Threonine synthase (Paenibacillus kribbensis), 463 residues
Amino acid sequence: MRYISTRGQVEAKGFIDTVLMGLADDGGLMVPEQIPVVPAATLEQWATLSYRELLLKVFALYINDEIPREDLEQLVERSYASFRHPEVTPVKKINESLSILELFHGPTFAFKDVALQFMGEFYSYVSKKQNEIIHILGATSGDTGAAAIQGVRGKEGIKICILHPHQKVSKVQELQMTTVDDKNVLNLSVQGNFDDCQKVIKDLFADLDFKGKHHLRAINSINFVRILAQTVYYFYAYFRAQESAGTKKINVSVPSGNFGNIFSGFLAKKMGLPIHKLIIATNENNILERFVKTGEYKPGDFKSTYSPSMDIQVASNFERYLYYFLGEDAAKVSEYMNNLKTEGRIVISAEDLQRVQQDFEALGASNEQCLDLIKKYKAEYDYLLDPHTACGIAAYEAYNGADEVCVTFATAHPAKFDEAIRLVDIQQEFPAPIEQLFSKPQHQQVVEHDEAEIVRQLEAFYV
C-alpha cells in the first residue's frame, strides 16, 4: 500500500511517512494508491468482532506492517482505555427505523476522540521510535482541539498548538482546551471564524521551509490516519444495525462540516461495505447540501449556529471526494481546485451532478429544526440530542425510506452544547469531568487573524 497526492506531484509514500506529511507537499491531500476491497465473506467474519478487533483488521489493510502487530495492539489498547463504554462506540436503537451510533464516550465527549486518541498514541510511538521532535499544529471548530490536546498533553517529544475561532465555539469546548495547563500545549484564540483558522494552517503547511524547520505535523482531518480511524466505526455501526435490520437496507446519516467524517463513510463504501445511502447533514452553513443539490461548490456567507462545530464553509476533505469523482485524475483535481481559488467556486455538469446524487443525499437543517428535534426526541424517546446530532436526525427524517433503517451518528454529548439545550427548557446534568471545568483557570492567547502574529507565537513556543 502506497499513498499519493490528489494533485499528483508527490512521490508515492508509505503509511508512516504519509501520516507525518499531513497535508501533501504539493498542497493536495494524501490518498491510498488503491483502495482495498473487502470480500463479502470477510465482511461476514468481521461482523461479530469487537471495536478494537475491527480496527486492527481495517488498519492491517493500510499500514504495510510498518507498525508490528504487537505494537499496534498496544497502541489501540492505550487509545481506548479512557473511553467510558466497553464497546467504544455503542449503537442505541431508538425505534424500528432509527439507531444512534454514540461517538461521545471518549475523554472529551466528542467523536473526534475516536481518531485523535489513537493519533496521539501514534505520534508518541513514532517520536520515540525515530527519535523525532513532533510539533502538532491544527485548527478546530470546537471538538478537534480538545481531543487532540487530550491525546498528547504531557507527552515527551511532542508540542501542540491549536487555533480556535475566538468566542465561536461552545463554552465547554473552549474550557476543554484552555483549562489544560501543560507546557507542551498552546491555545491561540483567533479573532475570526474557523475557515480563517483553517486557512492559516493550510498556508503554514504549504510553506515547506517553515514546515520542515519546525517539524510540523497535522492533526486535522487533512491527515489520512484521521479518515482511516473514523472508517472503522462505519463498519461497526453497519454490523450492529444489520443484527435487527432483516431485509431492510441500511442508511447512515452523518453530521458533517469539514467533509472528513462523511468521506470516511465514502471510503468504507468503496471498500465494500454495502451502505445504501450516505446522508450528509449540515446546518445553515450548507455548502455541501448546495453542492449535492445544485452541482455548485461555492462558499456562502458564514453563519453562527447552535451547532458550531459545523460552522464551516470550506470543507477540506471535499478534495479527496473530488479525486475519486474525477476518476483519480490528479490533473483535473488541480484544475478544479485552481478554479475554486481564482473564481471562488466549482461547478459541475448536470450529468456529473447525477453521479454525485448517486453517492450522497444532503440536508442543511435550520436552527429552529434542530431545537424542535431536540425537544421532540426528548419527549418521545427520552433521548437527549446535541444540536449536531439533531441535524443528523433532520436528515434521517427527510431521506430514510419505508424499506430502510438508518444509523445516525451522535457526534457529541449534549453537555458540550448546553447553550442550545437550555433554549428548549431542558435541564441536563453535566458529567463530572465537564462540571469541573467551570472552576478551572484558562490558558490561552487571544490573537488577531494575522498570519505573521500567529507565526511569532509559534516560533516563541517552539524554542
